[in-house]
Structures are given as structure tokens and as C-alpha cells.
Write a structure and sequence with these properties.
By secondary structure, this protein is mainly β. Helix content is 13%, strand content 41%. The chain has a 7-stranded antiparallel β-sheet with strand order 2-1-7-8-9-6-3, with helices on one face. Strands 4-5 form a two-stranded antiparallel sheet. A two-stranded antiparallel ribbon has the order 10-13. The chain is globular, with a radius of gyration of 23 Å.
Length: 225
Amino acid sequence: MAYYFYLDKLLLPIAPSKLQLKVNNQNKTLTLINEGEINILKKPKLTDIDFDAMIPQVKYPFAIYKDGFHDALYYLDKLEALKSGQEPFQFIVTRTLPNGKMLFDTNLKVSLEDYRVKEDKKEGFDLTVSISLKQYKDYGTKTANVTISNQKAVAKVEKTRPAESSPAPKTSAKTYTVAKNDTLWIISKKFYGNGNEYPKISSANKDKIKNANLIYAGQVLTIPV
């Protein structure tokens, strides 16, 4: 099975062997005199994601380089930019069978909490980076204007104003009408020069694409740039 790990637009050259997603809990257990323990159910906390990624210093035949080979410094610079950029980004993992059938994907908006670079002489010049991500949820404020008419208070809630300190990443997009015999891989190859970028198109068209292997001629897809 093929795994592809994306941090924003950065495809890791070697997919990590392990991935841990922890959906944190904020339920509260109380003890009642007559009923014993009860559990107050609340919405889950933000999800934590942890994995170790091998960053090669030399070109391996089993690694994937969508923009050509880059050494470890290139990936470390990208990670530092994600950490210091103070903006959330998309974390995407796709899982594909050898026959090309897509199983399911993980697609979360996240922040890079921390990363640790480890060097081990047993691994030669290659590096291992331990990466910790946390789910990010957009938030904002609402304002209410209260007017008094005939001694009755009327509140009008205005449109949500996004938090200025945490703007969502700005994106642009094109549209494309699916032709006969098109696949997401072919469309991705046409727009990005690399068929393995197809998860970006699938993610941008969740309302139209339920199965990445099933698209139809005449569909109008959004192509993120």
C-alpha cells in the first residue's frame, strides 16, 4: 500500500512507518449520591498528530521527489517556515492500494507544534525528524447590535468576523471540466506536472467527489493553485 504524507504543499520523500492520531477527550466524570459515577459527554478536544519522518541526504530509488531531489537542508528549511510562519496549514495523508484504488485519507488543518531533529551514526548521513502537529479550528467573534423598540429589546447578530490574529491561508483556484477517460491522476499531471498531487484536487472537491477513483465526464472541478 502506498502512503503519501503532505505538510502543506511539502510531500515527504519517504512516508513515515508509523502515524499516531490522538483524539483528546474532555468528558467529565461525576459521582452522584444515589447513581454512582456518571459521564458528562462533551465535544472532543483538538487532535494531536505525531510521527517520525526519515529525511535522506542521498537520493534513494524508493523515495518520491515531486520537484526533483533535495537534500535534508531543503526539508528542514520548509519545516522551520511552517513553524515560524504562525499560520495553519493542511496535513494530508493518502492511502492507495497497488491497483490504484484509494482507501481513505486524513485531511486536517493543523499547526506545527514542535519538531526534533535526530542524527544517528547507524543511519549514515540521513536524519530523522520527530514531528508533532495539533489540529487547528478556525474561530472568530460575532457582534450584536441591541435596539429598544416599544420597550422590547431586539438583538441583531452581524456576520462572523474572523480572528485577525489567525487568518486562514489565502488560496486561489481554477476550474476544469472533466473529459472522457480523465482520472484525478491525469488531471493532477496536467495542472501540477505530477499525478501524485491528486489529493489536493480531491480535497478541494469533497462535495463532488466521494470516491477518488470515480469521476465523470462533464463534472466541473475546482483546481487549487
